[in-house]
Amino acid sequence: MAVTGSNGKTTTKELISSILARNYRVLKTPGNFNNLVGLPLTLLQLNQSHEVGVLEMGMNRFGEIRRLTEIARPDIGVITNIQMAHAANLGDIEGIMAAKGELFEGMDDRGIAIVNSDDQRVYNLGTMFKGKRITFGLGVPCDVWASKIENLGVGGIAFTLHIMREDIRIHLKSLGIYNLYNALAAAAVAVALNMEMETIKGGIEDFKPLSKRMEILEMPDGIKVINDSYNANPGSMVAALKTLTDLKNDGRGIVVLGDMLELGDASKSAHYHIGKSIAQSKIDHLMVIGDYAESVLKGAMDAGMSTHKLFRGRTHKDLSLKLKETMKAGDWVLVKGSRNMHMEILIDELTKNLQT
């Protein structure tokens, strides 16, 4: 089976594997080996001991998902969502949709498409698939959906999973509503394989959040840092910001951002709008680094954020020193940026600074 989408590919792949491993011997994509080199390398590990493969598919240009689908020939395909990511070579959101849609296009009609009904573009792609479809979302009509969603803060999310006419209460240890969608996608794959509710529950509850993806780090004085430094695009930025504001409650929130890369002509506008969103979320301090830092700051200032709450760093060390100077007991800090911005360096610098 194959998983693609703008956000949540790796987490969904890991959630699927956690569920399936209860009944099957699973081969899964290691890390994010999801391109035209990594996927074949993964398949080369396939042997007679494996009963199912869970493969992640990434892309940044047209034709890549089509070729990966030809190589893997998945029986089940998942598109998690379609958002502005890797737009530099794809033009716009419609181009991204077409590129992600290559998965369903390339699958045999005897396969099963796992469709996010709450994402209109994914839903539209699903309607064009001639084989069986299993839908998931946060409401009916869906084959797999969630209700009675309870935010447990740092403990994750509790929800009732519905599959057809059955339901069960589940505790997902990951933060953010978007991770609930990833869990529903994984449950839908399990439905395609006729797995039982208790097995699905166990697999989801066994899942542990991945490093650098909404990972909460406990710092001295009750300061909590959300390390979401693995990657970033406009959709995941907004989702991470929402999670921060939910978690901090009435406390102070600090956002430290690196550039969102590969957005092409939309780069300045996307960063500007993220700045506006941060200001409108009543964040206490915004710190930025990268080529598009000024666009973020301008968006924040145009939305009313005071200049004394803004800081542009030239290096990760600049940011870490400013952050150390700014933080107070009980603060919540979000650190996020695209992979090539290496925002984890800031986490390392911050940890060193706090120890000195």
Characterization of the model:
By secondary structure, the protein is an alpha/beta fold. The protein folds into 2 domains: 2-206, Mur-like, catalytic domain (UDP-N-acetylmuramoyl-L-alanine:D-glutamate ligase); 215-354, Mur ligase, C-terminal domain (Protein-Tyrosine Phosphatase, Chain A). The chain is built from 13 helices and 15 strands. The protein has helices spanning 9-20, 38-43, 64-72, 93-100, 102-106, 120-128, 177-192, 197-206, 234-248, 267-280, 293-302, 316-326, 344-354, and strands at residues 2-4, 26-28, 52-56, 76-79, 112-116, 132-137, 144-151, 157-163, 166-172, 215-218, 224-228, 253-257, 285-288, 310-312, 332-336. The chain starts with a strand and ends with a helix.
When the domains are counted, the total is: 2
> What is the H/E order?
EHEHEHEHHEHEEEEHHEEHEHEHEHEH
Share of β-strand residues: 15-25%
Cα(first) to Cα(last) distance is 48 Å
What's the name of the CATH homologous superfamily of the largest domain? Answer: Mur-like, catalytic domain
CATH architecture of the largest domain: 3-Layer(aba) Sandwich
Would you report the number of β strands? Answer: 15
Biggest beta sheet attributes? 9 strands, mixed
Mean pLDDT: 94
Percentage of residues in helical conformation: 25-40%
Globular, elongated, flat, extended or rod-shaped: what is the shape?
Answer: globular
* Adjacency order of strands in the biggest sheet: 2-3-1-4-5-6-7-8-9
Write down the Rg.
Answer: 20 Å
CATH topology of the largest domain: UDP-N-acetylmuramoyl-L-alanine:D-glutamate ligase
